[in-house]
Automatic annotation (TrEMBL):
Example GO molecular function: ATP binding
Phosphoprotein is among the record's keywords: no
The organism's place on the tree of life at top rank: Eukaryota
Limits of the Helicase C-terminal domain: 208-385
Full protein name: RNA helicase
Enzyme class (EC, first level): hydrolase
Classification via Gene3D superfamilies: 1.20.120.1080, P-loop containing nucleotide triphosphate hydrolases
Biological source species: Sorghum bicolor
Amino acid sequence: MPSPSPPPPPVLPISEHEDVIVAAVDANPVVVVIGETGSGKSTQLSQILHRRGYTRRGAIAVTQPRRVAAVSVSRRVAQELGVPLGDEVGYAIRFEDRTSERTCIKYLTDGVLLRESLSNPELRQYSVIILDEAHERSLNTDILLGLMKRLIKDRASDLKVLITSATLDGLKVSKFFSGCPVLNIPGTLFPVEKFYSTERPTNYIESSLRTAIDIHAKEPPGDVLIFMTGKDDIDKMVSKLEERIQNLEEGSCIDALVLPLHGSLPPELQVRVFAPAPPNCRRFIVATNVAETSLTVDGVVFVIDCGYVKQRQYNPSSGMYSLDVVQISRVQADQRAGRAGRTRPGKCYRLYPISIYQNEFLEATVPEIQRSSLAGSVLYLKSLNLPDINILKFDFLDPPSRESLEDALRQLYLIDAIDENGEITDVGRVMAELPLEPSLSRTLIEANELGCLSQALTVASILSAEITLRSASKDMDGKRKRQELPDGSGWGDHIQLLQIFESWDQSGYDPRWCSDHDLQVRSMKLSKDVRNQLCQIIKKIAKGSTDVHARKSRKSDPDYRKLRRALCVGYGNQLAERMLHHNGYHTVGYRSQLVQVHPSSVLEGDEYGKFPMYVIYHELICTTRPYMRNICAVEQAWVEPILKKLEKLDVNKLSGGSSAPKDSELLVENKQVNSLKKDMDVKQSEVDSKIQAARERYLARKGKK
DNA sequence: GAGCACTGC
């Protein structure tokens, strides 16, 4: 029978330190709390401060980097306090606010707290702000850290900030907050014994395979968690491991079950790892980084760590992203090892020598703020109107490079979010209100002026949900063939995405329509939610309908000229010009790059197979080559104003410095581009034949029609 | 003709 009273709060290590914690918080505006997994910091700190009266003059906010964590931790705390969720204890995440006027302990994602501070920069509703899991150093957490440093000065006596983390370098954070106290709370993790390889394996799949089989043959029951870098490696590993296990002598080992685990796995397959292992069976979970922090798999006693991770990085000098396999950090390695010690003492097999761990691994992972494009964050900070703020001197725990900040300023200037002196514009203020990348928010504003808002809302939503289209041609043979998707009418990928969403809308948002077209229902639903949220925000200034099928749009503008024009303004910082003689492009801007149209693009060439002279792109991604991904054709006349702005661009003025000589580097860069262009023209014959082939395909298509 | 680690407003 279920007991009517809530379960008693568990005795966690943190409870024994209650007096110390409260004394430290009473006496200091900022306190750092280092607590390992199982210390109870996420659930107990807020309750302790609530008990001690800190909620009398404001609520306690606890930020989490992930939505699921905000929901599950708040649910736990409500349960422990014996109150319904949404009353005294609640949570707020995007699309969902379960708080009320009575809420005094509020769990929220750090992104939501940043949004709140946009309309209420002093965050007066809170008496305490706890930044949890700060060691993960998400972009948003880092910005909050900088803002908190300013806030405690402004709100001197009455705001309390706690920075809590599992492994954060406490001394560094303490220095950042002018020597605030650091409290260490032990966790409840069991010891994990670590084993190192004598050298780096040449093939770490083979090496982890051997280790896994070894564990299976010699070690007592307990699940094995294997960290790999990506889906391909995981799939290989899973099939090889199954094969080897089958080849083992019958009766020599207990049963085994091999399960893959990564983010792109459909949810129904992901949840398999949460089901308990069948009796007398060892599970092998082959996973990416999801298993490092986001998902916790119960029953793991052995960890195999290849020592690598796939990381997305942004290069501010080229504006290009790349996805690289890099060495993990010591913090990451320890986090992975810790996954073996949750239920009993465990073992971690590291496929690298201890010398590499000690001498080659970085202490901590490079924080996201040093690996991302900062246009959105810089715009956000500018919109807060902080007094005497110089973005280049903003006090970050780990400042991004000057180059990266200047890159952000240049981008913002080109899309009118800041003026030539670096001051935020009226357009920029509206942009900052929208939960979108700057290019997309600028597109919305322009679309509103041009009368194609409803289309732009759709494009922005679907792009921010990162819908991926799988190519249709491959799965011809055999099973269910995917139904044809719209083709963007030749104008490019943005238009195709718009058409896709409109078709889905016409199907009455039927999930089957998504699966018939090989689209993930999950991400399509997300884009619908995003669209609704954007409509809510923009309705104050909307000049036309925001309905998906605003009546006249298609008929009066069959070539999507208005929308493409809005996109051209929005993506003024992501513009490319085609080479004179072939289908390569060079980006237009501070530093010109040679790039190509991504093969997945639906952009069409003209009757000679030539692509349009100008296109805008959503993203530059360097894989085997530098590619533009998600492209839309624009017209030369629309590009002129951007080229004019580029001429005037002076980054010294943008960054608030005194006037200095103009970017002389730009001229040098342009010369380099010209010489590269020549270099590419040498291979003209090669290119010509490709153009010829494209032309033939084009004519063949025309013939069919 | 390519290939996608993970989050979040």
